[in-house]
Amino acid sequence: MHESHIDQGSSVPQHVAIIMDGNGRWAEAQGMSRVEGHKKGAKRVRDVISWASEAGVKQVSLYAFSTENWKRPKLEVTALMTLLATLLPLEIPSMRKQGVRLLTLGDISRLPWAARKALKKTKEATAHHDVIDVILCLNYGGQQEIIEGVKAFCNSFQNEIEKENALESLNEESFRSYLWRDDILPVDLLIRTGGERRISNFHLWDAAYAELYFTEQLWPAYTQEDFQEALNDYMRRERRFGKTSEQIREAKAS
Ligand code: IPE
Ligand code: IPE
Ligand code: MG
């Protein structure tokens, strides 16, 4: 499994995950409301999808709403859900043109009806597209995903013998199939805008070997140059997965 990652060392990351942070601070700095910041942030979502596609990235996952974000003021939560419900379906024609398939990650059953409806419509309209996957992470939490994975694993055996066999053969790769990552490639590059240096419960399983990239830039002000700089930084890194640098060079040469 690890062998397949090594080749990517200096090539374009296949899966780029983005923690789109800083909408509120950007808006406050402009004397606008936080909701205005989220609106501006939504525009950057459109942009980053085309920049990623242009660069040859295969999957982009976007942290749009964490399991912890329910703790925000009710008005802000409602505004975020309304933005999702109203703006997402408008993107279908451009997603069609660009070959974007929409996927979601997280428990979307808890989202308001209008948001779920917009997601269903957009997922259905884009299901056959195959240029790039956009994975909207909504009501997503990495710890919750792992807990649900443990539950699914425990529900997968009927008796003691099956349980023993399942436990015996459980490893990182097989456990992955109990997570919510069926169609999702391992995260190669995880970008966080907005200056904080934390993962905030995003992609915990894949954080194990994702390359991390933090930038001060606030999400609404994020540019194609910023994105390209993150890709360039990634491509300069050597992904060793525990091996030595010499081993990696030898594997590349052969
Ligand atoms: C990220 O921006 C967007 C969401 C969490 C939905 P924030 O709203 O967290 O912006 P800051 O961190 O307050 O600036
Ligand atoms: C992380 O941003 C979640 C999203 C970008 C959706 P937050 O702004 O909610 O993260 P914390 O709470 O500062 O860690
Ligand atoms: Mg924030």
What's the topology here?
Layout lengths: L1 H5 L8 E5 L3 H7 L4 H22 L3 E8 L7 H14 L4 H7 L1 E6 L7 H14 L5 E9 L1 H13 L5 H10 L2 H5 L12 E4 L18 E4 L9 H13 L8 H9 L1
What features would you describe in this structure?
A 6-stranded parallel beta sheet has the order 3-4-2-1-5-6, sandwiched between helices. The protein is α/β, with parallel strands linked by helices and 254 residues long. Residues 1-9 have low confidence and may be disordered. The chain has helices spanning 2-6, 23-29, 34-55, 74-87, 92-98, 113-126, 142-154, 160-169, 172-176, 224-236, 245-253, and strands at residues 15-19, 59-66, 100-105, 132-140, 189-192, 211-214. The protein is built from 11 helices and 6 strands. It has a single domain (15-141, 186-253), classed as Decaprenyl diphosphate synthase-like (Undecaprenyl pyrophosphate synthetase, 3-Layer(aba) Sandwich), CATH 3.40.1180. One 3-methylbut-3-enyl trihydrogen diphosphate binds at residues 19-21, 63-66, 68-69, 196, 198, 200.
